[in-house]
Design goal:
With about 170 residues, the chain is of the alpha/beta class. The strands form two sheets. A four-stranded parallel beta sheet has the order 5-2-1-6. The protein has a two-stranded antiparallel sheet with strand order 3-4. A hairpin with a 6-residue loop joins strand 3 and strand 4. The chain starts with 5 loop residues before the first helix and ends in a 7-residue tail after the last helix.
């Protein structure tokens, strides 16, 4: 016998939950994949492609995302105004400097299905460049999702014993 009544289980299935994702030192693609699943409702047993059963997703620390390799300078975001000569190209570093939320937003938008529900799903995505949240959103949060990639420790975070125990490759 479960601890919840049947009506409580149904309410928990159909209700919109609020998930928190910390994007600090995470690749935007991994964050976007997690957000896309929650926004569509694919993690729920009642999922259907035509039904709008997704949840709210709150992404914090989008200012501190991390690209691998040289993607800050090599990745290019393109747009067109619709007028002749209106083709614009911006690198990831320039876009991130202009709007720290834009890269995560574009990554999530690209991972959602291309249908009429896409804009509705994007309205349930809340992105914050730092870790300060409004009280109204903080009250609604139901679950914090773990980060997809483990954050590497800085050298200053190691103790002297750990540094001494690390194998030396070359000794002068």
């Amino acid at each position: 016998m479960s601890s919840f009544s049947r009506s409580a289980q149904q309410w928990a299935t159909f209700a919109r939950s609020w998930f928190l994702i910390d994007a600090r030192m995470q690749p935007p693609g991994k964050i976007a994949a997690m957000c896309s699943v929650r926004l569509q409702g694919k993690h729920k047993p009642i999922y259907h492609a035509l039904s709008d059963c997704g949840d709210h997703v709150v992404v914090i620390n989008s200012k501190h995302i991390a690209f691998s390799g040289n993607k800050w300078e090599q990745k290019v975001y393109s747009s067109h105004t619709g007028y002749p000569g209106g083709f614009k190209q911006v690198t990831a570093a320039q876009l991130h400097h202009k709007d720290p939320k834009a890269i995560v937003k574009l990554a999530v938008y690209g991972m959602l299905p291309r249908n009429l529900l896409r804009r509705t799903m994007m309205q349930r995505l809340h992105i914050f460049s730092e870790d300060e949240l409004p009280d109204a959103i903080r009250e609604n949060l139901t679950e914090e999702l773990r980060q997809p990639r483990e954050i590497p420790r800085k050298l200053s975070e190691y103790t002297q014993e750990e540094i001494d125990a690390f194998p030396q490759l070359w000794t002068p």
